[in-house]
Design goal:
Length: 111
């Protein structure tokens, strides 16, 4: 049976962190880049760095008000440049796996 993984993303005001996590919760591979002007491109490239066969889904945590149904950050105090951007559809289109977005504090509480 093929190993299964998830990718977790912390989209912060200072850094963009992406981790490939195994079924047992072990971090297999991770990357960190500064949150920069071309954030969507940096996000897609960072995911590509850790993406592998067996990824079952991608979760994105970001500060602000999130429209989970439509995959949009409606308000972000740390990253106003992404307000109104449909991050979920960009990631889903590129990687072909389910993608979820949530407020970073809610994700931390779940973790």
């Amino acid at each position: 049976m093929q190993k299964q993984y998830a990718i977790g993303i912390d989209l912060g005001g200072t850094n963009l962190r992406v981790a490939l996590v195994s079924e047992d919760g072990s971090v297999v591979k991770k990357t960190k880049v500064p949150s920069i002007e071309h954030l969507e491109e940096a996000l897609l490239n960072s995911i590509a760095e850790v993406f592998t066969d067996g990824v079952m889904g991608i979760g994105i945590g970001v500060a602000g008000l999130i429209d989970r149904k439509n995959g949009i950050v409606t308000v972000s105090p740390n990253l106003p440049a992404i307000e109104g951007m449909n991050i979920v559809s960009s990631v889903k289109e590129r990687f072909g796996v389910p993608v979820f977005i949530e407020n970073d504090a809610n994700v931390a509480a779940l973790g």
